[in-house]
TrEMBL record:
Coiled coil: none annotated. Keywords: Signal. It comes from the Bacteria. PANTHER family: ARGININE-BINDING EXTRACELLULAR PROTEIN ARTP (PTHR35936:SF17), MEMBRANE-BOUND LYTIC MUREIN TRANSGLYCOSYLASE F (PTHR35936). Gene3D superfamilies: Periplasmic binding protein-like II. This is Transporter substrate-binding domain-containing protein. Residues 1-19 form the signal peptide.
Length: 237
């Protein structure tokens, strides 16, 4: 009798160890680069036999949920996030990069860093750390609820320029069929490495995920995957 019970328990434990775990990550809604980063992470976590689920919310709400542990982490954020949200642990190396860029409807100038837009009325998406950091201290910055809302406001002349990731901006402008009116200026403001974050309750998972990212980066798999995902989004009607 005891032998039967022990065998059953052993089988149950083996099955449980092989079962796929689930991690829920906050994903900033309607931001294409968040989709790309999420799909990159889906491949990373699959190598650890962990399934990802995404919770689509505005940027500030995402941070509130992830820092409180109501979801398990963030897909990708700037490198200084843990300074303001110490419960979120950075996974290294970086998973992705973004290139904040200036979009406009009528201006023409060569972009030379963030200070080159200081004198303009600027639109950003609330909760996007790179945009908030880059425009900090500037006088005429409007924080919008989302990228499509920001594009609509730019088209209505509510501000002179908007700042968003180049890739995300191109996708969203095309989605709204405004590519004949709204265009990016060159070059991008900068290139920023961005990192995956996990809530401190998953501290033991941080080095494991980081090791997989490092292996994929060294092999070139990470760059190839990003390139394929970006092309997929840009080519989707």
């Amino acid at each position: 009798m005891w032998r039967i019970i022990v065998v059953c328990l052993s089988l149950f434990a083996a099955g449980a160890s092989q079962a796929q775990s689930v991690i829920r990550l906050a994903r900033i809604a309607d931001i294409p680069d968040q989709y790309v980063g999420g799909e990159m992470l889906r491949t990373v976590y699959a190598k650890l036999n962990i399934k990802l689920e995404f919770v689509d919310v505005p940027g500030k709400r995402a941070l509130a949920l992830s820092s409180a542990g109501e979801v398990d982490g963030e897909i990708q954020r700037i490198g200084t996030l843990s300074r303001d949200y110490p419960t979120l642990l950075q996974v290294t190396p970086s998973i992705n990069y973004i290139e904040p860029a200036v979009f406009t409807t009528k201006l023409h100038f060569v972009v030379d860093g963030w200070n080159s837009i200081r004198d303009y009325r600027i639109g950003i998406v609330r909760g996007v750390g790179s945009s908030e950091a880059g425009t900090r201290g500037m006088d005429r910055v409007t924080a919008t609820t989302g990228i499509e809302n920001m594009i609509t406001m730019l088209d209505a002349d509510r501000f002179d320029v908007m700042v968003t990731d180049l890739f995300s901006g191109l996708v969203a402008v095309r989605k709204l069929n405004l590519q004949a009116r709204i265009y990016p200026l060159s070059p991008p403001l900068e290139r920023i490495r961005i990192f995956h974050y996990l809530h401190e309750s998953h501290r033991d998972l941080v080095p494991k995920v980081g090791q997989v990212i490092a292996q994929m980066e060294a092999s070139g798999e990470l760059a190839t995957l990003r390139e394929a995902l970006v092309k997929q989004v840009l080519n989707t009607p």
